[in-house]
Structures are given as structure tokens and as C-alpha cells.
Amino acid sequence: MENVVITIARQYGSGGKTIGKMLAEKLDIPWYSRDILKMASEESGINEQLFMQFDEKLRKRLFKRISPDIYTGRLIPPESSDFVSEKNLFNYQAEVIKRLAKTESCVIIGRAADFVLKDYPNVVSVFVHGSEEFNLARAMEQNSMTEEEMKKFIAKTDKYRAEFYRHYTGREWTDARNYDLCLNSSRLGFEKCLEEIQAYIKVRF
User: Is 7 helix (H, G, I), strand (E, B) or coil?
Assistant: First the structure.
């Protein structure tokens, strides 16, 4: 296997992003998250600001439980009135994710990358979760909110991530069947999560 891609979905506060960055450093490979938006802008020619606004607009709409728009892999051409639609903005993000998976080893955090790359044999998909107490404690360390405000923020963020995932994949975000590994960071700690992922990669490939 020439290159291996690790996708990481994560609950807010579970440390999934930190684990992804640590893993990338350990393996000496790049990691990608929101910078995929900039790359999608460069690839499509669509203004980067539209990609930056993409999440916020979609966040408001998804909380109204709009119908799923499952990703099929087809780009909408520039001559179409839907070229800069939310659907096509996601399509271009997916194109970037697929290109990365074909050309280099890397860690991709979020963006429903596990679904976009579900047919790629060189992909390891990971879901990182933690106990409510653990996620809250970590989130409180990084944000200046009251405990009650933080609980509401975590619930809202995870609900959005679940709705985003359902909207583009038709699947449930927390369903273990979607992933190769589901890791409880509150029990394992970050270092052991890294060990588990590396051990799986060694056995798999």
C-alpha cells in the first residue's frame, strides 16, 4: 500500500482533532480539516468566502431537518444555476478529499470523509468519543463559558455534526458500523488511541 489515509470523526471535546494532529505528527504526514475549504475554492474557482459561509448557512438549515441530499460524486457544471449551491460546495470538498486519498498519506478530520472515501481500500475510518464528563471538562479548559452554556454548546455542535453527516450520507453519525475503529478517548487517553490506530494500520496493511 503506497499511501494510507486516516479519517477521523469526533464528538466535541473528545480530543479527536488533537489525536488526529498527534497521529499525523507521529507518522510524519499532513493533516487536513477546514483547510479543505480553501483547497476546494482553488480547485473550483468558487470564491473562498462562499465555502467559509457554507457551514454556517447549512447549520441553520439542518436544524430544521431538511431532506437528505446524499453525496453521489457528481459535480455540477459551471453553466448550471446550482454551481455555487451548498450541494456543489460539498461536492468540491469531496473532490479534494478524494484527490488527497489518491496522492498522499494523510489524516482528514471531519467533512464526512469516511463516507466520501468508503470505497477506497487505503482508508482507515475512526470515530473518537468520550464520556459526557470528559468531553465537558476538556471543552471547559478551552472555552470561557459557564458549565451550563458549555453543555448546551456541546449538544448543539454534536447535533449539527450528526445532521450534517446524515444529510450527505444518509447514515447515522454515531453508528459504529460506519467506521473501522471507535475509540473512547476518556478511557484510553490520547496516546493509547494513537497506539490503537497504528496497531490497526499495521494489521490491516
Answer: strand
pLDDT in tens, 168-196: 999 999 999 999 999 999 999 999 999 99
pLDDT for 46 = 93
Other beta carbons within 10 angstroms of residue 120's beta carbon come to 15
200 contacts: CB under 8 Å, gap ≥ 6: 124, 180, 181
* Residues linked to residue 183 through DSSP beta bridges, in sequence order: 128
Contact 143, 92 (CB under 8 A): no
Q: List the chain domain ranges.
A: 5-204
Nearest alpha-carbon partner for 196 in 186, 205, 185: 185
Short-list 106, 151, 140, 120, CA closest to 6: 106
Does domain 5-204 fall into CATH 3.40.50.300? yes
Asked whether the beta carbons of 114 and 7 are under 8 A apart, the reply is yes
Name residues of the chain where pLDDT drops below 70.
1, 55-57, 62-66
Report the C-alpha gap between 189 and 11 in whole angstroms: 15
Q: Are strands 123-129 and 5-10 parallel, antiparallel or unpaired?
A: parallel
